[in-house]
């Protein structure tokens, strides 16, 4: 893919907390904020930073399954609920399972490129604690092909990624991989403990790796994963402004406070087709390849990555899909600490899906916010060092079993 | 009759009581799982839930539905396999809903005792009244439509917690077709089942009961056939000791303070889930009185009777639980299921615990340090060492609270040992298992913490 025909920026990110088990304020028996409350909080957070609704031209919101979790459709019409000033602004809702947030970002980027907007209020939301996990699994299974639901596992997606983990164990060694998955969990929680909005912010468990090394129990869950290998059930929303140079100027945001989109890759694979190789994320690999090409860089230029670690094994597979380690070597790369916050290339510095939380439709947008914070020095306690010779960052948002993928390359705008 | 045949037609008597409802739930799940096996597809499974009130049975069915749904949600991974050939059941929700309706469809709530006449297994869980139990058992046996001399003669399980099984068997004329299968409250949660066979009990009943308890994932402890068995054999004597300590203390302090002090000593100093008076409330003062009277008649040399309980029950103070599981007022008055006030038999009023708690606590003296509670003890990764340390400290303390607690610990140990020497329990380990898994204690009563020479 060619270089973008116009400069596109992102700034003014805002995350709500990721609410769910692990947060002290979470009580499944007590009433909690609803979908519209999350949308309003995140939207207003971003509006404040762009100088109000008057500076917004369009709105886009990523969401996966509000129609089932909250019995709510027509989410685009909740954008004007954020602020009266958004009434009659063009808005849409996009859905691509857990890549819905990623799709919201590219939809906004395309609006700026198409010059229909200078500032797009770009959001993601999901409120999933409305049902027990056993029924949430039914809803989330919608990210796969429905005709496979009957033969699939009760916990459909953990089942799919358990199969991937099993294949990876078989090819490259069980102990080696479990060790890497446990290290991934430790990194995720250690990062999340620094971030007040993260779901694992209150986690005080000692010896995280030993905890995560417990044995999977296929009688009550899946064969190759434990609960520590899975992102949790989360409620949350995220918002960021996707802007042109004019948009930045209007909002009075300096380029140093924004990131620039250097390139992106948006890839779709057939929902009904089985993955060619369970131990490989080939759709993710293709999306990353296109994003890096369009930015004109290689993986060696990346200073930090936000990957879609819906499961710890997906983190390991992502390292390989990006090309940071050869196939079968991703586990050792992770175990060596290269993806930790003080490692060669810090991954998921606010905890990722496992640590920060995974309100599915919001995750893609939340990743862009983490990168914006890191590249512009706004990450506070969770700031990592971005090497001068590797100023680029990459985000990967993945929907379903490596079916819908958006990868974006960023750098600080000035 | 094989295992599945024996469970094809079952009756639970007293099905809406707190023990009966749990037994019904567990049995319904076991029967449903059998009925869903391909080899049993032609069998018709029936579970009669017999009780005296339609209203209570209505409540039972609501309880059952909620509990079965919870069970189904927990085992949804296995249930998907069970229903794999039902193309219409796709989502977990479809599967859970079907399982709930399949289990509930087995259960026939009824106030008609005659329903039990065609059952191969009758599980008796009515109140602890020997005459009533004998009447029901013998009536069903007499009128059973099954061949009483054949291999398919009806079998009877009794959930009695105190009445010797051989007495029930003889008086109801069951000819060895009765076995004591004593669940603990609540049956769906507590792991323990005491198995009590009379000398006449047929081996086949025991074999069947062991298989049944194993499928229900219960811990089985055999108890010999003496009134009270192991569980109540310990609890009633332990309760009487607590009562006598309180009566003794009440000579130097108001009654409510004495009860509070003994309750706290047995809970916080002995690391038990609840103090002895709260446990009496939980079981019910009237149930305790019943069990004591059954035991008292059968241990004529021993004083198993409490005039204090008689007095409170006469005043209408009974404890026990409401059908939703919440606690009724007994020695204590409960707010949100926590003890908040104590009953004074003189004034017939409850006095708020907060009005004397601080003074009582100060009088008792501090707890051993470092602190340990029942809740932390049961989950402690190094439980033995933690208990050793806590009770080691307690042994060296001479404060009134510590001295009282040590006497109670010592008495509990003595009762446990006597159950073994009297041949009620077959081993010390069995006594400890009963207290650990039926009463949820953190340690067994027969231990080294309260040996007389250590306690002085």
Folded structure, characterized:
The complex is a heterodimer of chains A (414) and B (456). Chain A is α/β, with parallel strands linked by helices and 414 residues long. Chain A has 2 domains: 149 residues, Thiolase/Chalcone synthase (Peroxisomal Thiolase, Chain A, domain 1), CATH 3.40.47; 237 residues, Thiolase/Chalcone synthase (Peroxisomal Thiolase, Chain A, domain 1). Chain A contains 14 helices and 9 strands. Chain A has a 9-stranded mixed β-sheet, with helices on both faces. In chain A, a hairpin with a 4-residue loop joins strand 8 and strand 9. The longest helix of chain A has 19 residues. The radius of gyration of chain A is 19 Å and the shape is globular. Chain B has 2 domains: 221 residues, 3-Layer(aba) Sandwich (Rossmann fold), CATH 3.40.50; 225 residues, Orthogonal Bundle (N-(1-d-carboxylethyl)-l-norvaline Dehydrogenase, domain 2), CATH 1.10.1040.50. Chain B contains 19 helices and 11 strands. In chain B, the strands form 2 sheets. Chain B has an 8-stranded mixed β-sheet, with helices on both faces. In chain B, helix 2 crosses helix 5, helix 9 packs across helix 10 and helix 12 runs antiparallel to helix 13. The longest helix of chain B has 22 residues. Chain B is globular. At the A-B interface, helix 5 of A face helix 4 and helix 5 of B.
Overall tally of domains of chain A: 2
* Second-tier CATH architecture of the largest domain in chain B: Orthogonal Bundle
Identify the biggest protein-protein contact and residues per side.
Answer: A-B, 15 and 16 residues
N-to-C span of chain B: 58 Å
Number of helical stretches of at least 4 residues of chain A: 14
Basic shape of chain B: globular
Oligomer: heterodimer
Note the main attributes of this structure.
heterodimer, A: 414 residues, alpha/beta, Peroxisomal Thiolase, Chain A, domain 1, 2 domains, 9-stranded mixed β-sheet, 14 helices, 9 strands, 34% helix, B: 456 residues, Rossmann fold, N-(1-d-carboxylethyl)-l-norvaline Dehydrogenase, domain 2, 8-stranded mixed β-sheet, 3-stranded antiparallel β-sheet, 11 strands, 50% helix, 12% strand, globular
């Amino acid at each position: 893919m060619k270089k973008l025909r116009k400069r596109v920026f992102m700034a003014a990110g805002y995350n709500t907390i990721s609410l769910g088990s692990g947060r002290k304020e979470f009580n499944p028996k007590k009433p909690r904020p609803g979908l519209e409350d999350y949308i309003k909080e995140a939207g207003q957070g971003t509006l404040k930073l762009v100088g109000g609704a008057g500076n917004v031209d369009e709105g886009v919101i990523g969401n996966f399954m509000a129609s089932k979790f909250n019995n709510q459709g027509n989410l685009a019409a909740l954008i004007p609920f954020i602020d009266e000033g958004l009434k009659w602004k063009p808005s849409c809702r996009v859905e691509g399972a857990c890549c819905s947030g990623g799709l919201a970002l590219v939809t906004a980027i395309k609006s700026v490129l198409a010059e229909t907007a200078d500032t797009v209020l770009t959001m993601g939301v999901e409120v999933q604690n409305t049902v027990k996990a056993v029924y949430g699994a039914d809803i989330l299974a919608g990210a796969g092909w429905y005709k496979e639901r009957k033969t699939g596992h009760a916990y459909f997606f953990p089942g799919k990624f358990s199969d991937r983990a099993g294949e990876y164990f078989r090819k490259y060694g069980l102990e080696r991989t479990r060790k890497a998955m446990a290290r991934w969990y430790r990194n995720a929680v250690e990062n999340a403990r620094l971030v007040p909005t993260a779901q694992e912010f209150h986690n005080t468990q000692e010896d995280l790796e030993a905890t995560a090394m417990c044995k999977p129990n296929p009688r009550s869950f899946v064969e190759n994963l434990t609960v520590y290998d899975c992102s949790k059930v989360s409620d949350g929303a995220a918002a960021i402004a996707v802007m042109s140079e004019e948009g930045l100027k209007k909002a009075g945001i300096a380029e140093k406070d924004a990131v620039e989109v250097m390139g992106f890759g948006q890839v779709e694979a057939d929902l009904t087709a089985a993955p060619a190789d369970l131990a490989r994320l080939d759709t993710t690999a293709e999306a990353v390849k296109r994003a890096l090409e369009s930015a004109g860089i290689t993986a060696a230029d990346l200073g930090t990555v936000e990957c879609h670690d819906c499961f710890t094994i997906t983190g390991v597979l992502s390292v390989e899909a990006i090309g940071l380690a050869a196939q079968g070597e991703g586990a050792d790369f992770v175990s060596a600490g290269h993806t930790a916050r003080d490692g060669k290339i810090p991954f998921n510095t606010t905890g990722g899906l496992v640590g920060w939380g995974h309100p599915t439709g919001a995750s893609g947008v939340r990743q862009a916010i983490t990168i914006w914070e890191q590249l512009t020095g706004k990450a506070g306690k969770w700031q990592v060092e971005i090497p001068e010779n590797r100023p680029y960052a990459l985000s990967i948002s993945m929907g379903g079993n490596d079916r819908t993928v958006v990868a974006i390359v960023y750098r600080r705008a000035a | 009759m094989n295992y599945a045949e024996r469970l094809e037609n079952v009756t639970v008597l007293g099905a809406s009581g707190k023990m009966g409802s749990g037994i019904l739930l567990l049995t319904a799940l076991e029967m449903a799982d059998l009925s869903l096996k391909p080899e049993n597809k032609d069998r018709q499974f029936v579970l009669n839930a017999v009780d005296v009130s339609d209203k209570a049975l209505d409540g039972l069915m609501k309880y059952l539905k909620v509990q079965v749904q919870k069970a189904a949600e927990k085992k949804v991974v296995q249930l998907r396999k069970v229903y794999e050939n039902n193309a219409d059941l796709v989502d977990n929700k479809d599967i859970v809903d079907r399982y709930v309706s399949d289990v509930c469809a087995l259960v026939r709530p009824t106030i008609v005792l005659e329903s039990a006449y065609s059952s191969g297994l009758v599980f008796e869980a009515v109140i602890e009244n020997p005459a009533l139990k004998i009447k029901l058992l013998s009536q069903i046996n007499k009128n059973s439509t099954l061949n009483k001399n054949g291999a398919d003669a009806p079998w009877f399980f009794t959930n009695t917690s105190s009445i010797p099984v051989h007495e029930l068997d003889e008086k109801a004329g069951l000819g060895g077709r009765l076995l004591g299968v004593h669940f603990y409250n609540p049956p769906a949660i507590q792991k323990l089942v005491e198995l009590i066979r009379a000398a006449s009990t047929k081996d086949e009943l025991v074999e069947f009961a062991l298989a049944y308890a194993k499928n229900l994932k219960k811990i089985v402890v055999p108890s010999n056939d003496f009134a009270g068995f192991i569980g109540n054999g310990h609890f009633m004597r332990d309760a009487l000791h607590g009562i006598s300590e309180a009566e003794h203390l009440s000579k130097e302090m108001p009654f409510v303070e004495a009860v509070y002090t003994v309750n706290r000593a047995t809970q916080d100093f002995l690391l038990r889930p609840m103090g002895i008076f709260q446990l009496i409330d939980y079981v019910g003062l009237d149930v305790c009185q019943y069990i004591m009277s059954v035991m008292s008649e059968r241990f004529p040399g021993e004083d198993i009777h409490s005039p204090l309980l008689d007095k409170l029950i006469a005043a209408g103070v009974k404890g026990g639980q409401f059908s939703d599981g919440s606690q009724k007022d007994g020695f204590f008055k409960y707010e949100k299921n926590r003890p908040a006030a104590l009953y004074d038999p003189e004034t017939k009023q409850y006095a708020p615990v907060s009005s004397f708690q601080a003074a009582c606590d100060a009088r008792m003296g501090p707890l051993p340090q470092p602190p340990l509670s029942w809740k932390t003890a049961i989950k402690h990764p190094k439980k033995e060492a933690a208990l050793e340390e806590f009770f080691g400290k307690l042994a060296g303390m001479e404060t009134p609270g510590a001295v009282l607690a040590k006497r109670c610990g010592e008495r509990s140990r003595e009762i446990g040992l006597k159950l073994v020497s009297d041949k009620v329990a077959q081993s010390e380990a069995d006594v400890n298992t009963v207290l650990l898994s039926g009463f949820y204690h953190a340690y067994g009563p027969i231990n080294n913490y309260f040996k007389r020479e250590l306690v002085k």
